[in-house]
Amino acid sequence: MGIKGLQGFVERICPDACRTVDLREMAEKHRVNHPDFPPVIVVDAMSCVRYWYTPESWVCGGQWREYLANLEDFIKAFMAAGIKLVFYFDGVIEKKKRHEWIRRRLQNNKEIARIFQFIKTHRKEPGREMFTLVSALPTFTRFALKWLGQKTVCTLQEADFEVAAYGLQHNCIGILGQDSDYLIYNTCPYFSIEKLRLDRLVTVMYSREGLCHALGLSLMHLPLFACLLGNDVVPESLLEGFWRKCLVTSHHKNNSYNRRTNILLAVADYVSKVSCSYSSLKQLEETLPLGSDKTLLYRGVASYLLPGQQSPWIPPNVTNCQLFSLQQQTALCQDKEIFQLAKEQHIQSENFTIFNILSKGEIECSNSLEDEYDTEIPGQALIYRPARQHIYSVLLESGKGGAYPFIKEWFVYFGNPLQQPELIEPVEPSIPGGTPSLKTLWFDKGPDVEKQRYSTFLACFHLQDRMEELQALEAPVAAFCCLLAYLMMQVSSLSLEDLDAFVALILCLKGKSAAQLAGLQLAQVDSRAVQLGAVFIRGLTTLLMANSACGFPFRMDDLMPWEVFDGKLFQEKYQQSHRGCSSEELLEGNESLYTPFQNLKSFICKACLAKKRTIQSRPRGNRFITGTQQREFNPRFQQTHRSAFIPPYHNPVRGVLWRNPRPQGKK
């Protein structure tokens, strides 16, 4: 998460540490000097997603096909220069960062409340100045890059540490990101994603040597400098008194600078007088008010020590390589074969969250665009909790008898203060004969186990009785229907109009290009549809988790949002449906979609009816839409509104997007 104020300090106060570079030229020099090794840039993907997401609309649930096209253009620009990219994503939130993670999530809640207030007041998309990440954007970015053929790594520890280590060990031409910690690690050059001009492959390179020259420090001083400014290990709150003393004695104080800038200069002045040795560090620990933990400074400095490096601050027999063999000993899952496969799939970005569950029994979910004042729709964390409880049971095999652990959930939703994790009990899904073992689901082969994988997946969403009908559909449509049926069962306020909007969405999305979707203009934006879009996208991540746990009855590619969702298109269908538009208008005049439309609705309504849930009509009228004129209706589509939907066909999937193969296993 970087050192507060350091990035801006370098850009404002240290011009010699900021140099504009041409990445093509750097790549060419690398090829000359290292002809056997192609030029590689390692990308801190989490600090890049804001840069990559450029579609104009961001509140409606995501313009996923536009975003996918952007990522493809980004990759092609580097490929044209002969530069290989390696993308790193945070795979864990370490305990030392939990406090900061919570602080940011609570701050995001306030920002999201302001976004919904804006939408309700102005009935339009907020400007980019209010931008917050689309729900689950980092998760699906990881899978998108993998789908686009890129090397994508999900980390086992702090991402910035693994990025810096990879850059050093593989002689990369640089790190692309926006995190001031890369100024502290002694690794390859650090390039700015914010300053990148993709058309010319020009950006700013931040120089550690230039920073040291401006501050009167050596490279060896930088880790101590970072710790004394406050970082992920040493809290700023413990350093306030130390900073005041530094400010009093510093010769570099400048009244034209802000307080943080003067603190940076004063701390640098102090550090420059400290000799680089372990004994100096120990003396410093004794004099600083570090509370009860006198090892904070030592651990903070050691956190910047990359594999193969030594530091004068640290005894020579100590390294910062974490002993992952210990992870197995303390993991919830004690089966080495299962644990190892989950770990490998995690690193290679092939599964989703299940390694975190099997290793430490703890998962988290960041903010979603949810309206705290809409009491009709629960938070997505609560909607999908029953499904997650079944997934936990599958993973921990809780149905086999004996005690089993609770899972610690850090899920953001309004009303959850995040003071401590919620302890969630695994619940066995309803499967005749019981849940198959994880070894069966993950390692066995053959048609019988494929069926078990699929039925176990469906059981997590209470749809195990609908297997034959779902298997008859194309895989993305089957996954969509599974999620939509679950949503309609779980949220009693969802109406027939909401169902119509979702079904029309997936049918009309098929065949639409990113450019066509980008050109779609909305007269207004409805806040309830914004929340439903976010809830649906979070549902797709729940499908990813279930698919990973059950041995991949679906290809992960079939569960991606660009296959089944577009934010603006959903807004359009939602508004049309709630103001009573005909099926003709909902389906854009395409008569070939009428039968699939009725049949998919029929399937979902029957699945809900089997669980004693009748979907009622609750049109919300045109209170959010004004001045829109309906087209002439084709009698083929004319249908009066009913208070409840009556399935018209015996076979609810007849004529609906059939597919030939059965669900495919993992690629």
What would you say this structure looks like, in words?
- It comes from Bucco capensis (collared puffbird).
- Its main location: nucleus.
- The strands form 2 sheets. Strands 1-7-6-5-2-3-4 form a 7-stranded mixed beta sheet, with helices on both faces.
- The chain contains 29 helices and 10 strands.
- It has helices at 6-13, 23-33, 49-52, 64-80, 98-122, 137-147, 159-169, 208-215, 222-229, 240-249, 259-271, 278-287, 296-302, 325-330, 336-347, 354-360, 380-383, 385-396, 438-443, 447-459, 467-471, 475-490, 496-509, 514-518, 527-549, 561-564, 567-578, 583-586, 594-610, and strands at residues 18-22, 40-44, 84-89, 151-154, 174-177, 190-192, 202-206, 362-365, 407-411, 422-424.
- Helix 18 runs parallel beside helix 25 and helix 23 crosses helix 29.
- Mean pLDDT is 90; it is low at 322-328, 624-643, 645-656 and 658-667.
- The longest helix is centred in the first third of the chain and has 25 residues, at 98-122.
- The chain has 2 domains: 6-221 and 274-283, 5'-nuclease (Rossmann fold, 3-Layer(aba) Sandwich), CATH 3.40.50.1010; 337-611, no CATH class.
- 46% of the residues are buried.
- It is of the alpha/beta class.
